[in-house]
Amino acid sequence: MSHQKNLGLDGNSFKHMNIENNNMVTIYCIEDCNSLKYVGSTKNTLKKRLKGHKQNKREKNNTCSSDKLDLDNCKIYSLETCNESNRMEIEKYWINKIDCVNSIKYIGRKESLSRYNASDKNKANQKRYKEKNKEKIKEKRNTQEYKERINIYKKNLYQYKKSWGSIYYGNLLDIDVNLFH
Questions:
Q1: How far apart are alpha carbons 95 and 87 in whole angstroms?
Q2: Is the dihedral of CA 77, 80, 82, 85 positive or negative?
Q3: 1, 83, 124, 158 - which has most CB atoms within 10 Å?
Q4: Is the domain of 21 the same as that of 100?
Q5: What is the pTM assigned to this prediction?
């Protein structure tokens, strides 16, 4: 792994980093005035990527851990440039190496990075949605329509499990394929 190349870029003055090849990716770090850090990767210039983070925060998209940073008082710098083919591996390395605010950590995982990366991002997004919409979800769960749908689901699930020969143990030969039509 290459060592950190601090370009000394801040939110107000940028030196453009040109990436000649479309397969090249920059692994970068954003560090704010409170020493909070975020690690990411991009094929764009660092200036464009920081602009994207600021726009997402302004629009309150809440899809990225960089929202925790003061993006108006920060610097962005390149950690490493790599090929698209090993982008996730290198980004994983830097996320684990740097004490950063990234909500997804990769320590101790053996599976394919892209597979659990998507899974973890989905879980993180679901968690944020549930926290943000707690009252709305609670109201929805108290409606008669929701309760009826849950009861129908439970009955269908029970019938499905029963069609396997038992609700606890299954027999694949007894599945009623018309059950969910």
A1: 12
A2: negative
A3: 124
A4: yes
A5: 0.51
